[in-house]
């Protein structure tokens, strides 16, 4: 006589199955979040691969929900997995820090020390004159790897603590000056999967 590995049908239906659905939704929604991010960053080869596994996992999860329409716990697990997967996907995206960002600094003070600091660290920088609400200002622009943003913000706060700065996503660049350092992080190799390459 074979024993039920899950103890009872009720245990499987109301505990094991919802846990499996919850975990499946975390996986497929996390993959979906990453796929959208990779598409927006122009990483064309990795996004379809992620999409393949994403939809397979989703089909497995939704098929179990549809097979147990009277099981309210499965609905809760499905929705909870979606929420958790979205949150986890956002955290992963922050950790891998792929792509380029434009940093714009506006200051009333002389930005010479800031510009020299940027250039000494091999960041490309452009400085122009501008007119603000209270008078003349200097505007400093630079485009950097997103993974370098904490370092650049630290430079700004050190050299121009009262400066206004903003950070914007950059889709692509044709030419640019970037620090020549070894790739950092597990996902640094993703630059080779883009639609475009940054200029040398």
What would a concise description of this structure say?
This protein has 200 residues and is of the alpha+beta class.
Could you outline the blueprint of secondary structure elements for this entry?
Elements: H1 9-40, H2 46-67, H3 72-96, E1 100-107, H4 112-120, E2 126-132, E3 135-145, H5 149-159, E4 164-170
Antiparallel strand pairs: 1-3, 1-4, 2-3
Helix pairs in contact: 1-2, 1-3, 4-5
What does this structure look like?
The protein is α+β, with helices and mostly antiparallel strands and 200 residues long. The chain folds into 2 domains: 9-96; 100-193, Alpha-Beta Plaits. 50% of the residues lie in helices and 16% in strands. The protein has 5 helices and 4 strands, in the order αααβαββαβ. α1 runs antiparallel to α2 and α1 (9-40) runs parallel beside α3. The relative contact order is 0.14.
List keywords for this structure.
200 residues; alpha+beta; Alpha-Beta Plaits; 2 domains; 4-stranded antiparallel beta sheet; 4 strands; disordered C terminus
